[in-house]
């Protein structure tokens, strides 16, 4: 089998999801915002046992970059995608690996010895919002040494597209820099997801270290706004934030940077640092940033929004790796994001639908 062309790196997590009818109670009990992604603090730690014992929960494979990897695999031929992250030697890992196997993602996990457990995310749904509260456990024990193991070194050499979940910047900037610097100097494509407002807010230093090596930056409106605040741009409008991020320093200057900002059901924005000089399949038009309306999705078709942004990003990436145009990549992203909204958790429709 040929080597995967896409490699994603992130925090492998098992999602423990509470449905919307019971969500409000847990938001209040644990002082969580309706639509947010945070690292669990001391006061949140009982939430995992609490929801398992007292709520109707669904277990679903999660971890933002792992979700995106499965979405990329959905649109690419078998064997195209691999995923790197750190897990415990436990049943949670088995569950994640089975889902990756079933959906065509090669799991190149670093496995921490017992009793370290695989990370988990409490997903509290209310209406169309989702609150993510994560305990990283094994995920934050990832070490750069894993990148030079023969299996992973081969994956990194063979791949052409690298997807980094911004969430790993809380603990893994050294590994991220190793992956992205090598990729960027070899002329390969690096995609970074901002992941959550707290990343630009509290991990700005790490973000600024990685940004020069990023060809395509993906985020949503609240992450972009958090970046603007952290970067001293106040409440600048989204097009300005996107254009500023697009034109910030780049190590591989021969290739322009794209910044993609999603806004749920509102239009997606794409800014390019150099629209006329884009590589052949990624040309934007004269409109910069360009706006892409999101097809409408009726409310009764939405089960929950957990993972929709990841599926957008992974769909975009898969389409990009198959040589599609920018417009087509955004369209595939929108389609997979919406498909995910119709499932419980970060899932797509199986058997596979054509996208
Ligand atoms: C470091 N944190 C907070 C996280 C995450 C995370 N993935 C990586 N690191 N917090 C939540 N997630 C995942 O985001 C997906 C939805 O976008 C959840 O596991 C969920 O599947």
UniProtKB/TrEMBL annotation:
Its cofactor is Mg(2+). Keywords: ATP-binding, Kinase, Magnesium, Nucleotide-binding, Purine salvage, Transferase. It holds the Pfam family PfkB. Residues 270-298 are annotated as: Disordered. GO terms for cellular component: cytosol; nucleus. Belongs to the carbohydrate kinase PfkB family. This is Adenosine kinase. It comes from Dioszegia hungarica.
């Amino acid at each position: 089998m040929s080597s995967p062309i896409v490699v994603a790196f992130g925090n492998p997590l098992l999602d423990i999801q509470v449905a919307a009818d019971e969500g409000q109670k847990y938001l209040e009990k644990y002082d969580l915002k309706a639509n947010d992604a945070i690292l669990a603090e001391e006061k949140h730690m009982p939430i995992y046992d609490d929801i398992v014992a007292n709520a109707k929960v669904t277990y679903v494979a999660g971890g933002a970059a792992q979700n995106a990897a499965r979405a990329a695999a959905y649109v690419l031929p078998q064997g195209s995608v691999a995923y790197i992250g750190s897990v415990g030697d436990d049943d949670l890992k088995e569950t994640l690996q089975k889902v990756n196997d079933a959906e065509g993602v090669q799991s190149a996990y670093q496995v921490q010895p017992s009793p370290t457990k695989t990370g988990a995310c409490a997903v509290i749904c209310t209406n169309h919002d989702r609150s993510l509260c994560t305990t990283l456990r094994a995920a934050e024990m990832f070490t750069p040494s894993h990148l030079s193991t023969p299996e992973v070194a081969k994956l990194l050499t063979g791949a052409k597209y690298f997807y980094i979940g911004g969430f790993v910047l809380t603990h893994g900037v050294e590994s991220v820099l190793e992956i992205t610097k090598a990729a960027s100097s070899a002329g390969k494509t690096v995609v970074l997801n901002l992941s959550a407002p707290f990343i630009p807010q509290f991990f700005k230093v790490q973000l600024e270290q990685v940004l020069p090596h990023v060809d395509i930056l993906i985020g949503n409106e609240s992450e972009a706004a958090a970046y603007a605040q952290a970067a001293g741009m106040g409440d600048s409008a989204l097009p300005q934030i996107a254009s500023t991020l697009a034109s910030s320093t780049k190590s591989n200057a021969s290739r322009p940077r794209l910044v993609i900002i999603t806004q749920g059901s509102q239009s997606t924005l794409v800014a390019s640092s150099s629209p006329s000089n884009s590589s052949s399949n990624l040309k934007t038009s004269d409109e910069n940033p360009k706006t892409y309306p999101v097809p409408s999705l009726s409310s009764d078709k939405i089960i929950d929004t957990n993972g929709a942004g990841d599926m957008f990003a992974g769909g975009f990436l898969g389409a990009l790796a198959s040589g599609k145009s920018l417009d087509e990549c955004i369209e595939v992203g929108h389609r997979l994001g919406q498909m995910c909204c119709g499932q419980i958790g970060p899932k797509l429709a199986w058997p596979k639908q054509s996208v």
